[in-house]
């Protein structure tokens, strides 16, 4: 590995890290603004123009709040919980291809931190680790309500992980690869987007992504009504902030994932017909990718202010009795269609 | 039995059909409703900068009125205090001395007039009871305060600010 390569990746890591943090920060503001508009009121609009400084104020408030670690808590694990949550949220963006290649002189830079050939598996592995943050946090608090909240969160995450994995298998059968960059590259133009061949798969994937991010209508890990506050009952100041922050980063990453896997990632219609140079196509592609991501983030929030929360047994019913059979049926259907296509139309 | 209002509805609980069980059409409909609100005009009043005018029949803070020549109308007859169901009004009457004719309209006036705003229920009965048209509930809200004693409003807060009748007449003539 040459130095330039390491430097290039380092810069990319820093940029991706910064972008996901900034987007997570401003998602909190966007959420409150969108909530406001959907409820016929203004959101926060006091700090700065249109409330633009609100996330900074919130952050400052989080840092200055009193930090409490309960006497009976396991101190090391108590601190480890939010740390793990935020780390897993941050590292899952490593395999997402943000764009094609940029050429500086004779140096070709790929806009992807790590182009590993098991990208999809990597993301699933990291996302599955995310539940440890919640579980450890809930257990280390030495509070039975936190523990129950954590158990609920863990069982929800695991249940929906299965549906998510099965829904992605049908997609992998179509694309024939586990590499994220390869999957996105296959969807060039507009007609090749995976949403057209895998609409059911996308629906299942999206539902499971909502559940994995603990977003409404699946935000059962946080249960103010039944379990005081859920797994983070005992958390205060920035440790609670990190949990919330990791939720928003997760939302950003799963939006990116949905855009990359099903909506063509950086691909946009007529991208090669406009006669642009490769660098320009890449830059526009990155912008298009971010527009898609923002669209999904907006959709997350839109859903939040539309649907009521599920009851826990309804959640489990939906996961195990609806989504998993549907995902399996989707796999079988995809297999049949693939065989028919290969035998008669190739 | 025949319904009197014809507004009675029989609730039916038939099993949901396939599309209803899918929930997706209902979700799409709900999303439609929320997004419509996203583009609606916002009726919120930006309060400290922008204030909504009071309704015409709003009963707010009391004010003790003056007559055309700027004299206090109140004669301390006590009818307002008597009619007050919350017993919020207290007053002390005093006799007008020589030289005070421009201050008080009649021989008797209220030297102390106090309304306890914590007791007042803003019913407007004092307004109705007053034979001299001296008290009206035409002010704004009672302001917040930390101390209970600050809610006892004396004459300093209740009496209309004095005005110069000659100046007003001149302005009217101009």
TrEMBL record, chain A:
Major localisation: membrane
Keywords for this protein: Cell membrane, Membrane, NAD, Oxidoreductase, Quinone, Translocase, Transmembrane, Transmembrane helix, Ubiquinone
Role: NDH-1 shuttles electrons from NADH, via FMN and iron-sulfur (Fe-S) centers, to quinones in the respiratory chain. The immediate electron acceptor for the enzyme in this species is believed to be ubiquinone. Couples the redox reaction to proton translocation (for every two electrons transferred, four hydrogen ions are translocated across the cytoplasmic membrane), and thus conserves the redox energy in a proton gradient. This subunit may bind ubiquinone.
Compartment(s): Cell membrane; Membrane
Family indicated by similarity: Belongs to the complex I subunit 1 family.
HAMAP family: NDH1_NuoH
E.C. designation(s): 7.1.1.-
Signal peptide: none
MF-aspect GO terms: NADH dehydrogenase (quinone) (non-electrogenic) activity
Transmembrane residue ranges: 6-29, 77-99, 119-141, 162-181, 193-211, 248-268, 280-303, 323-340
UniProt xrefs under Pfam families: NADHdh (PF00146)
Catalysed transformations (reactions): a quinone + NADH + 5 H(+)(in) = a quinol + NAD(+) + 4 H(+)(out)
Protein's name according to its UniProt entry: NADH-quinone oxidoreductase subunit H
Subunit structure: NDH-1 is composed of 14 different subunits. Subunits NuoA, H, J, K, L, M, N constitute the membrane sector of the complex.
Top-rank taxon, per record: Bacteria
Protein's membrane topology: Multi-pass membrane protein
Species lineage: Bacteria, Pseudomonadati, Bacteroidota, Sphingobacteriia, Sphingobacteriales
TrEMBL record, chain B:
Signal sequence interval, chain numbering: none
Pfam families listed in its UniProt record: Fer4_7
Function in brief: NDH-1 shuttles electrons from NADH, via FMN and iron-sulfur (Fe-S) centers, to quinones in the respiratory chain. The immediate electron acceptor for the enzyme in this species is believed to be ubiquinone. Couples the redox reaction to proton translocation (for every two electrons transferred, four hydrogen ions are translocated across the cytoplasmic membrane), and thus conserves the redox energy in a proton gradient.
The family this protein is said to belong to: Belongs to the complex I 23 kDa subunit family.
EC number(s) from the headed UniProt entry: 7.1.1.-
All residue ranges annotated as the 4Fe-4S ferredoxin-type domain in the record: 65-94, 111-140
Organism ancestry: Bacteria, Pseudomonadati, Bacteroidota, Sphingobacteriia, Sphingobacteriales
Subunit composition and interactions: NDH-1 is composed of 14 different subunits. Subunits NuoA, H, J, K, L, M, N constitute the membrane sector of the complex.
Gene that encodes it: nuoI
Record protein name field: NADH-quinone oxidoreductase subunit I
Superkingdom assignment: Bacteria
Alphabetized PROSITE patterns for the sequence: 4FE4S_FER_1, 4FE4S_FER_2
